[in-house]
Specification:
Helix content: 25-40%
Strand content: 15-25%
Shape: elongated
Amino acid sequence: MSASAEEAAEFRAAFRTFLRWVETQTDERGNEVVALVRTHLGPERLARSVVSKELPGYEHVNLQVALDHWAAQPGREVHVHGVTVPPHWSGLTLQQLLTGEGLPPVRLCAPSLIDLPSGPGGQTLACLVTAVLLLEDQRGRYVLMIRGPEPHEPPLLDVEVAGLPVSDAQAVQSELTALRSTLSVYRGQVLELGGDDRGGLRLLFADLPHTGRDEVVLPEAVLQRIERHTVGVAAHRTALLAAGQHLKRGLLLYGPPGTGKTHTTRYVVGQMSGCTRLLLSGRFLHLIGAINELARELQPAVAVLEDVDLVAEDRGFGPGSSPVLFDLLDAMDGAAADADLLFILTTNRADLLEPALAARPGRVDIAVEIGIPDADARRRLLELYSKGVPLELSAQEAERVIERTEGTTASFIKELLRRAVLEALEEASPFRTVSGAHVAPALDELLDSTQRVTRALLGVGDADALSPRVLGRTAGGHGGLEGVDIELGQPFG
């Protein structure tokens, strides 16, 4: 650092110290916030300890719901006052207001509020940020202070109680904790979980599209096995507990990309309407500890952990630490056996998970393969994805599509219909129908040797592994669905 830069840094530090000194010269007896708190409590209650509780940022909205309910109870009088703090100060505490020591020139103001999500469909609730609540009830007079998260600091809330014996102050905190849990805006909702830019947990209310049973294209035996382990257990909760059986269970859905694992999961999530449903994707699985705690708090709950293979070899946060997947499995095991928790894990790479599952037995009770769709499944997928599309294929043309898509995935079929619609639009916009003349070139393009990466993105393996009839296309490229079989652009046979 140059001499001029060092002098500038020293000046800034000295000036900041000077500002703090000027501010602390304010006679605390003349500070309106201190005067308000001291007058409300009186000399005897000022000497009592402050009892504090720290909450994660995502509980801010639940704290406000709890406070609103708690403050409205009969026999309790509440006066709310906002407090302003200079921007270069942080960490104001209720103890400072009681003693006046190290106090910035805080001032009374209208309570500052922040609008936070409180339910699906854009519902919000105005929540106190920094406020002092003067209270009086059967316990006498006391003060509660809320201090919301500071900018550029971990997203934490502080709730402090002063003016009461310690046991009474703890009782106040316990009452608010119980109300936060009982009245939680997250209970029974579908929530997408992730991290924020300050290292905290972020919860978003999800609006998942309805997925009917007829839209889940799986063999009936496979779908019934999944339902029995998820919806079935929830339906027989009381009877299972009476028989001494545990409710906590783990389901692993595995198979190639694009075969419908996420789609199946959405169907199950939609069926578990009486549960809190927590959705977490692979890149946020390191937050599993906080999510596991949240699931236990809001049970009955379903925790969906997608793409767990992404953390199968991630070794946590330092040398020698266990893979994040081990932490995830251990967190699953941390809940009591009678906890009504369902963990649904999905993976494209079951081989990466096997060592971890073997080392941590009992976390996953059942594994179900969601495989490449057979001919009947592809037929059903074609019908499913063509809903709303004026698709006109003869029986022969439809069967030709089913034959040529052997070895492909649900995602492939869906993309095929999208491209066929584009073909029809290029021919005439607006179009009236999508015919075999539009499906054929779309399928030709997807099966072309130049589309190897595209097929991989749709969950289809190496084109060399596809049967010759799959790669068959019209000799002219864009005719009907009948034609000469060719492999990777070369004549077959």
